[in-house]
Amino acid sequence: MSARAWFRCIDGCAGEIPLNEIVYRCPNCDALLEVAHDLEMLRARSPFAWMKLFDERYKRTTWPYGSGVWGKKEWVAPQVDDDNVVSLDEGGTNLFWAERYGKELGLNELWVKQCGTSHTGSFKDLGMTVLVSTVKQMIADGKDIRAVACASTGDTSAALAAYCAVAGIPAVVILPRDKVSMPQLVQPLANGALVLSLETDFDGCMAIVKQLAREPGIYLANSMNSLRVEGQKTVGIEIVQQFDWAVPDWVIIPGGNLGNTGALGAGFLMMYELGLIQKLPRIVVAQAEQANPLYRSFRRGLDRLEPLAAQPTLATAIQIGNPVSYEKAVRTIKRFDGLVEQASEDELAQAAAHADRGGLFTDPHTGVALAVLEKLAASGTIGRHDRTVVISTASGLKFPEFKVGYHEGSLSGIDDRYANRPVVLPADYDAVKSAALGVVEARR
Question: What's the rounded Cα separation, in Å, for the pair 218 and 126?
């Protein structure tokens, strides 16, 4: 079937802006844009028929529909020709039943959506496939785009570099020096991007890349570009699909620049408006105490954004004091009867290590979400039988310093109550036997 999408102003300014226009904010009022879809056209197919179509495509081999994003192409980017899709089979990530960890928190239905098992190790792949595919389509249609640029705390740069490498499009990534992990830094280097390491924080990098994007031929890939977050909305759709089209009660997501919060809500709302689901979940945004402008706003009734200088945090990807997508996040929180909670450095480290004992390998940003989960479970806000999903945004493998530092006890100010250190023994069977049988005895 045919489908149609366009940019529109989130504050309701009249007019449709084509998706192939190089524009990031409303030309009338400077508000953020969002991607709008012709829902009446999409309603020509019934809710059941949509579910059947998405299930038939899911993780299959017909290009490009096996992707967790492009299997929902009509709802995401119908303007891109299949030949111009740049996909690395993103999405389709594990929805892990964290049974053991959940029971220790008094929860029977705790699930972790492991977005970090995607190609570059984070949820950013979901958005970058749409943005780079659209750029490839725009170039094919004659637009003068010579490079795609982003500011990043690590994961955005990795995703942009990988997708641009596949497409043969130059990528420029601007990073805050010494504020991303070595694995995050090496990803864009390996994929051939121009990496600029600046003596500032993410907010400083963001200010510069916004200026750079005004130069002819440079296209912006940060989440203020609505095309980036459009692909990310599929995480909510995929969660419901993996539950056989049932809606969870709660979804908890880490929040930094806040594009992912609005994207998550957009996916659920689209399913709701097209009749695939009959209720909405409650959405919780989890922020690090060291970088918590949305939490502070929430405590004041979501009155306004007061930018702040984000302080150093183990959760480096969300060390953002002036989030670009604040307005979209506020709208989502209000529509989904949402909450915003924060976690201290010790709380996020302990929650990550606690969850790892149940079979996960958790990045520090997911640790923030897990710490908030633990608070809400302890207070009874989340009930024992509530089906709860925590969005894990990245692979723990990207943060070896965090993981090793915790278990070595070298993270400043962090208690190591779940630390597990190797036992050094001589190459002697009796010593090994004694240690091994001691573990067996302790578990009886």
Answer: 22
> Which residues, including other chains, have CB under 8 Å from residue 150's CB and lie 6 or more apart?
156, 157, 160, 171, 172, 173, 174, 209, 220, 221, 222
Q: What is the pLDDT of residue 443?
A: 67
Domains of the chain, CATH where assigned: 95-120+229-408 (3.40.50.1100)
- For the question of whether the overall pTM of this predicted structure is more than 0.90, the answer is yes
Q: What span, in angstroms and rounded, lies between the C-alpha atoms of 131 and 149?
A: 11
> What DSSP designation does 91 have?
-
For residues 132 and 231, the answer to whether their CB atoms sit within 8 Å is no
pLDDT at 289 over 70: yes
Task: Kindly list the distances between the CA atom of residue 85 and the CA atoms of 74, 89, 122, 357, in Å, as whole numbers in the listed order.
Answer: 13, 11, 20, 39
Q: Please give the Cα distance from 371 to 373 (Å, whole number).
A: 5
| pLDDT above 90 (res 184) | no
As given in the structure block, the two tokens for residue 186 are: 């090496």
Q: Where are the alpha helices (DSSP H) in 123-195?
A: 124-140, 155-167, 182-190
Q: What SS3 state is found at 151?
A: strand
The CA–CA distances, whole Å, from 136 to 34, 148, 219 equal 20, 11, 11
Does 433 have pLDDT greater than 90? yes
